[in-house]
Request: fold
Amino acid sequence: MSTPQLSEQEQVRRQSLEEIRKLGIDPYPAAMYPVNTTAAEILAGFSDTEDKFPEVCLAGRIMSRRIMGNASFAELMDSSGRIQIYVRRDDLCPGEDKTLYNTLFKKLLDIGDIIGVRGFAFRTQMGEITVHVKELTLLSKSLRPLPIVKEKDGVMYDAVTDPEMRYRQRYVDLIINPEVREVFRKRTLVMRSMRELFDSRSYLEVETPVLQAIPGGAAARPFVTHHNALDIPLYLRIADELYLKRLIVGGYDGVYEFAKDFRNEGMDRMHNPEFTVLEIYVAYKDYNWMMEFTEEIMSKVAMDLHGTTKVPLGDNIIEYAGPYRRVSMTDAIKEYAGIDITGMSEDDLRHECDRMGIGHSPSMGAGKLIDLIFGEKCEHHFIQPTFIIDYPQETSPLTKKHRSRAGLTERFELMVNGKEVANAYSELNDPIDQLERFHEQMRLSQKGDDEAMFIDMDFVRALEYGMPPTSGMGIGIDRLTMFMTNQQSIQDVLFFPQMRPEGQKPL
RNA sequence: CGGUCUGUAGCUCAGCUGGCAGAGCAGCUGACUCUUAAUCAGCGGGUCCAGGGUUCGAGUCCCUGCAGACCGACCA
Reply:
């Protein structure tokens, strides 16, 4: 292992560590610390007329220090926020020995160290609620200087904005940027809000395989790995759809899973190789029911996060209260591309793409071309939540044929801010039709479509035993979180977004 | 994969037509018992992303590479 050159400040901190040990103080004590409150609790509950916090014990990280001879102020940050502490020499060291204040607190502690304090809350002459410290315990010595961010009147000074630092060292980002912690708290709330709704209906949260011998349920390039004992290739799942439907066959009326899916494709502001999808399947429902349920989910999530269904996103306010507009794929293309694709052949569609300057390849069939026109000309217009319904059969191999419109399927996607956030079907449960659709995918694959679906014969076998009419939906949790927290990049809603490994740079 | 931009102290950044490497915060020493971007006096701290080239001389100009951001392409 190479020994990277330590900076001056790192060397000083290591020396301090040794001196702390020489004082007989353990810089990394094992014993639990008896925290009995938080910064936020004190700030919220403090009263000038009654002594509500005569004995507090809290712990956190030193974020700033103002040392003035024999008394000092510092800011302590715990998971709830920051509070000022007041440390006076003669309170910390009532006896003759002033080492704890003069040496430990003033010299050997640094910004970033984690300490515990015991004392009482009071209000300073300047009006700030503060903890007067009677007893101080070092809980963890920090050896690496933290980026210093100062703030006055809401203005941040020297804020760390370098995305590389923020994403590679997310722990630092979380320490110094409280609004980042809030985004991730909201991400958890999004999932909790959905769980509450599903559980209230007695739908069952389940787990299905991440390692799959046949990567099914979506059209995407998978990651491949190898299982040594079985000596077979295994794929990281691109979707959990086919397993969840097997469970509907097995007799559950409603199942859902928050799944990490993996796709070996491009990375950009909207895509990360691993991402989270909620999939839910409910027996005896169709896609019309699912649209109403989706409206209920979205407005509940918005309410739980913001207390309103109106959520700001970029320059817009998104209204998540239903009902949402429903536009068929055909009408959307009529409206924004100005053409009627009804009854058009593959050649006609290819011709229209050429006319509109949309690039396409020979391996694309009619359905893919329609998808392309929609993506190019229509998608970005749908800012407010809108259901795009009735997709072509060719690109929807797991979807039931439309009950009344030939060549189309009972499928919808929910568009928000010009992007897809949900995708749902009346699930195809006719095993003979399903097998035929898989074969159609095979033909597309042979034509050069490298993300056409694999045939999963066990899934067909399951359908042969009989699956009730079912509606299913997937929601992109990362994207939904972006929209609900007004973030413009998927990297801002993933704790640890995928990045190129760090090179030879010394850490 | 292509275009544009960026990389200098722990952090945020300056450094002009090439001429001794800079500031604020942070750190260190000292003063200060109600400060809050604390203040005051003093002091240290650099592989200027890496490698090569041009030049008497390169942080600065040129080439290659590495890493990142943005925009496209591919891709849900």
About this structure: The mean pLDDT of chain A is 92. The two ends of chain A are 12 Å apart (CA to CA). Chain A has 15 helices and 20 strands. The first strand of chain A starts at residue 56 and ends at 68.
